[in-house]
C-alpha cells in the first residue's frame, strides 16, 4: 500500500504535464526566434560584404576610365563605348574576373548573376517571377531622382535616362569629377525601385521613382533585410539605411544622396 502510494505520488498530473509542454513550447519559440534573427543578421552582413566588393570593383573601373559605368550601352556591339560593355553589371564583371569561375561566359548574365558577390543570400528568385527574366539582387544608382520621362539624369549611369520608346541612350558617361560629394552619393546596393512605400524588387537599378507593386514585391523588399537596404557610396563605404529613409523621406538629407550634384532636387520627386 505504501509502495502504491509512493508510485502514484511520483507521477505527473495532467495539469503538471500541460505546464511542462507549455514551457517547452515557449522555450522552443524563443530559441527559433533567436536562431531566425541570427540567420537574418548573417545574411545581411554577407550582403553588405557583397556590396562592398562591388563598390571596390566600381572604384577600379572609375580609376581606369575616369568615368562611371553606363547603366546600359545599347550600341555596344557597333563599337559605342566598348570599354563600358553592354550594361553596368557586365562592365564590372569584366573588370573583376575573380567573380566568376568561368570568365569566358561573363557577358551572359544568366550564367553568373546568381553567383558569388552578385547574389544576395536573402533574395532568392521568387516563385512568381517570370522565368524568362533575370531577378537581380543588386541595382545601380543610374538615374538619381530623375523621373522616367526625364531626358537628363541626376545619377551615375550616364548623362541621360534611357527610355527605349524615345530611343534616348545614357551616353555620354558621367565623369569622375562630376560627383560633388562622393562620400554622400549612392552608387549601388540592393536592387529596389520605388517611392512612397511601394517598391519593386529584382531590378538592376537602385532608383527612387514611382512603381507598381509586383506580386508582393513591396512585402518582399521590406522582408529582405528587415526594412533596411545595403548601399555602397561613391567613396566605397557601406551603410544600411532604412527603406523608409531611402524611398519615403523627403528631407534634403535623404534626397541629395541620390544626386551627383549633392542637391535635393525636390522638384524631381515622383507623385
Key structural traits:
four-stranded antiparallel β-sheet, 7 strands, 7 helices, 271 residues, three-stranded mixed β-sheet, elongated
Write the layout of secondary structure elements.
Layout: H1 2-10, H2 14-65, H3 88-95, H4 109-112, E1 138-140, E2 186-190, E3 192-195, E4 198-201, E5 207-208, H5 217-224, E6 231-233, E7 238-239, H6 243-247, H7 252-256
Parallel strand pairs: 3-5
Antiparallel strand pairs: 1-2, 2-6, 3-4, 6-7
How would you explain this protein's 3D organization?
By secondary structure, the protein is α+β, with helices and mostly antiparallel strands. It has one domain (2-268). Helix content is 34%, strand content 8%. The strands form 2 sheets. Strands 1-2-6-7 form a 4-stranded antiparallel β-sheet, with helices on one face. A hairpin with a 4-residue loop joins strand 6 and strand 7. The longest helix has 52 residues, at 14-65. The protein is elongated and about 85 Å long. The termini are far apart.
